[in-house]
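User: Run a structure prediction on this.
Assistant: Running it now.
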Amino acid sequence: MKKFVSFLLSGILMAGTLAACSSSNQTTTPSASEQKNEPAATDAKQPAKVLKIGSVNNDKHTLFQGYSKFKEIVEAKSNGSIKVEIYHSGVLGDDRSMIEGLQLGTLEAVGVSTSMLGNWSKPMLAYDLPFAFPSEEVADKVLDGPYGQKAGQELEKQGLILVSYMENGFRHLTNNKREVKSVADVAGLKIRTMQTPLHLSTWKALGANPTPMAYTELFTAMQQGVVDGQENPYGNMALDKFYEVQKYLTKTGHVYNPMGFVLSKKFMDQLSEEERNMIKEAGIEASKHQRQLNRDRNQEYLKTLTDSGMAITELTPESYQEFLDKVQVVYQENVKEIGQESVDEFIAEVNKNK
């Protein structure tokens, strides 16, 4: 019995000694975070800021390539701290709802026609004055110059930041009723237009029955005969297969259509000055890339439309002048809406850069 008690006491003493040793080892070997005198959580990589871009155009359009170029530049220069996601084909909504998303801070960026942005910046409406821009080169100089900057600054009052101008290009008329060779041929045609008063005014002046509608609804409307035709650049027509529901195309070139690349002010305000400058530089570089790409592909788009069976009509100089004369009233009707000062400044910039 004495031997058993002695053995038991020895075991207890040995266990105590081992526990003490273990405790001593724990207190003399600090963790990696303790050695640095800082919490381990600071070593974790900060989550990337997500910048979503919405667009009604599809992923074959040069605009998508422009947004992709922007994504490439931003993610490289930010070392992955900003992640760019592109949502095409109107999956985030139509132009108006996406712009409102920027104001609310639920969407970070959108590529949208300046025709729609004119609802938030009146000077941008001047871009839609019919037959105002004689060439792409003149458009570049006006958009990248003082007038384009002034129009962009107006957006900031509405919680929108214009980073740069991309382009959709010159717009042309299509319909499924008849060949349009003169103003008389436009009479009575139901033409889908953007949801802007100036476009409505233009097509009323030409004798059409303009029907405002979101772009995302257009193909079905043409397919079902809700409208007879529409007006858009070659790229939209070819890539969205308008040739399946439209027979006649007239090369009117009645409006040059810039696309504003716009970010949410709420999002931009969350960024550092360095990040904001990087985003603006990336937007300008991406826009230059997209404009040139779009111009390079225009003849390919027109060939696609021709090869797909559309009848292409060139206006004679006499017919072109007839169109030009008919729309002069549009300038008079919209001066008040745009602002006389802005109209005068815009026309002066166009004339200076011709």
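Confidence is low (pLDDT under 50) at residues 1-43.
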